[in-house]
Amino acid sequence: MSRFQTPPGTSDVLPEKAAERDRLEQTAKKILEKAGYGRIETPTFEFTELFARGVGEATDVVQKEMFNLEADSGTSYTLRPEGTAPVMRAYMEHGMHKLPQPVKLWYLSSYFRNETPQAHRYRQFSQLGIEAIGSPDPAVDAEVILLLAEILEAIGVRDVTLLLASLGQPESRAEYREELVAYLRAHEDQLSREVVDRIDLNPLRAFDSKDPRTREVMAKAPRLIDRLPQEDLDHFAEVQDLLQAAHLAYTVDTTLVRGLDYYTRTLFEFQSGQLGATQNALGGGGRYDGLAQALGGPPTPGIGWAAGVERMLSASTQPPPVEAPVDLFVAYHPEHKVAAFKLASDARRAGHSARLELAGRSVKGQLKQASRVRPRYVAIFTDEGVELRDRDGGEDKLVAPETVMHHIRGTL
Ligand code: AMP
């Protein structure tokens, strides 16, 4: 073994896992593109400022988890920790407001957060995500939620629950925030150190605390949902009506908080019991009608979600994908190497899958290898010609090398 290993919180994706990811990607692509989503790819790094403004200075992500890069004498870039701010940047940079709204985009890429690695929490991970930008209609909220539910079902994720909340808009949240800060201050002595330290910075995160005494205090804390103005309640009610019409079960969770700052109104998270008790979030998202303005653009409504690919795969109960069958295995005595090589390459050009001995094995060794691969045909180059074995019950034949393709064509 070399003295190098993958850095903490990262891992290699070996072919078997890559095949599972590939299947997930194909499934998601099919579902999303049928709903009108187009794929977008943004750079792996962006100006640090984009995330500072777009994700929010007060968030854990910006405060503690960004991998920053220095370049261009003093300009700071950051490996993307999330996909929404970059996609909104791209929407504005490319004038996508001129397209029919909402603009629907999906992505699957690597993201980077400098977190303490643990089960289901990595420093490099993949997210599948979508963003629907340009419409405030509650139907968009319901549609994006349904799409994630459909993907989770299609990839065989079991034991899924959907939590739903509404955060209202910034004005109602600001008033509520003051009320919550006052409540937290009044109970400071019963709250965890971490929560107390962040009362002014991000009081809503207190609902996220795992500390038992803090949880007791939070159980009686004022709830945002009881303070929302009618407009926000109407929006939330319509989202729920639409989800019910689509028969999607959900639980309203008035304590749901998510780590990113830009959410307004609808907020949701899909969890799976298969992931254990703490890192059980498969994915989630919400509406971010204030994000474009936070990035210096015009008011632009939007909603989206991101789901962790590693978590979805580990909560999936689907059997591993079966490998594609091999059509032809070419074995040969050393003096027929060139002709054997040519046959394998002709077969591939004709669209068949073909394997050729590449490690100098004896013919016996090659045939052993062939029985592992289980091809439809085995062609063995000998001095007498090519022995063509049909493993699908056909007869073994001795044929001329240049006729092998003719013999297998039409049967595969
Ligand atoms: P977020 O962008 O924080 O809302 O995360 C969306 C989803 O991405 C989560 O529900 C997880 O499934 C996944 N995720 C976020 N952070 C990590 C991480 N550090 N390691 C693995 N998956 C993650």
UniProtKB/TrEMBL annotation:
EC number: 6.1.1.21
Catalysed reactions, as listed in the record: tRNA(His) + L-histidine + ATP = L-histidyl-tRNA(His) + AMP + diphosphate + H(+)
Localization (cell): Cytoplasm
Pfam families noted in UniProt: tRNA-synt_His
All residue ranges annotated as the Aminoacyl-transfer RNA synthetases class-II family profile domain in the record: 1-334
Primary enzyme class: ligase
Matches recorded under PROSITE patterns: AA_TRNA_LIGASE_II
Superkingdom in the source lineage: Bacteria
UniProt keyword annotations, A-Z: Aminoacyl-tRNA synthetase, ATP-binding, Cytoplasm, Ligase, Nucleotide-binding, Protein biosynthesis
UniProt key word ATP-binding: yes
Region ranges (Disordered): 1-21
Stored InterPro entries: aa-tRNA-synth_II, aa-tRNA-synth_II/BPL/LPL, Anticodon-bd_dom_sf, His-tRNA-ligase, HisRS-like_core, HisRS/HisZ
Coiled-coil residues: none
Assembly and interaction partners: Homodimer.
Xref: HAMAP family: His_tRNA_synth (MF_00127)
Membership in a protein family: Belongs to the class-II aminoacyl-tRNA synthetase family.
Protein name stated in the entry: Histidine--tRNA ligase
Organism for this UniProt entry: Solirubrobacter deserti
